[in-house]
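Example (one chain per record):
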Amino acid sequence: MMAKKTLFVLFLVLCITPLLAIEGRLAVTTYANFFDRWYKSNAEVPLGAIPQTTHIYKRQAFYMLPLISGFGTDAKKKANITYNLTIKKGAIVLLDRKSVKGLTKVVNDTSAVFLCETVLNYEFTADAKEGEYSIEITITDNTNGQKATFGQTITVSTYKYIPRKFAVPDSFFVWQNYCYEGLEPDREIDGLLFFSQPKVQTDPEKTLPMLGFFAELFKGKFYLLNAVEEHFTKMDTNERLTTIHILNLVSYAPQSLQKKFNADEKQYYQSVKGYGLPIIPDSTVKNPYLLNLLWAKFFASGSFEHAKKIAETLELGKYEGAMARYNESGKTDRDQQEAFWETIYQKTVQDLLQRLPNHPLFNGYCLYMLTAKETAPDVVIQLERVVVR
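Predicted structure:
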């Protein structure tokens, strides 16, 4: 009987993965779509697809990403990781969370780096003290009892807008196209003021996407919205009107701001109040203006959902050849509609061929979609023609 017990214990020991040195590190980001960037970017180093920071503004939401490796698993290769997290300024504890679910899934290679399943977020209030804060995480491997502690120091301050005007259009458009990568942070208001110039808004086809870009960029970012409000009286007429338009799109118009409006601006605000951007349909996008709007929203956020909607337009590839057939057909309304849909398809193909080599995140999303079960087979076939490998 004793021999059987000994063998059973030995069996359990052998079924648990060897005790590696459990390790962890903390990454801090202000990008809410970090899970998509980690799991769907197809990046060789997923963390490289997530812009990180150690400087946080008051009223700016941020996310604390625990990354772990070297942990144990049970006989079924399932991990059981929890963690505690604290945010402190000296001896003062602002946040103290215990036994947060870290990792509970089946893991075949515990030497790889894993992002915890639960990621906590925080936002410092407007009256928070400025200076350094420490974030500390203690992870516990409940399979073998190992623990590891790690963390990061962040600096917290009040956002103050310091003008750095874009000297030439090219510099603005480079910033705008790669904003989702964290390129030149804190230039959102500079971009807004540049876009406000009448010469930039001469083409309605380009104005709509830019409105969408700035709406995506400013929504929910109260530290930025407050700074825009503070700078409002220093703006010229065009800047003020454009600002009113964009702030309406993100539903930001406190009485403190409206009191700064002159008579013309009050009238303009009433004319745009309640109006928003066009709604992106759940079905395939078949409108070139909406496609441009989706691209602009992606440039602002790096969102997988925006990239997915653009890629799904390739479903219109089934109408390829419709334009040529239209010239030889009876030119019915249906013939004309299908020919138009082919132009949308061709536009998407050209946009992807031109942009994917220069936008690794979007290209990575496309590579992910090639194997994702939710991607329609005809879209997968079309994606194979444009992705960069």
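Caption: The first strand starts at residue 23 and ends at 29.
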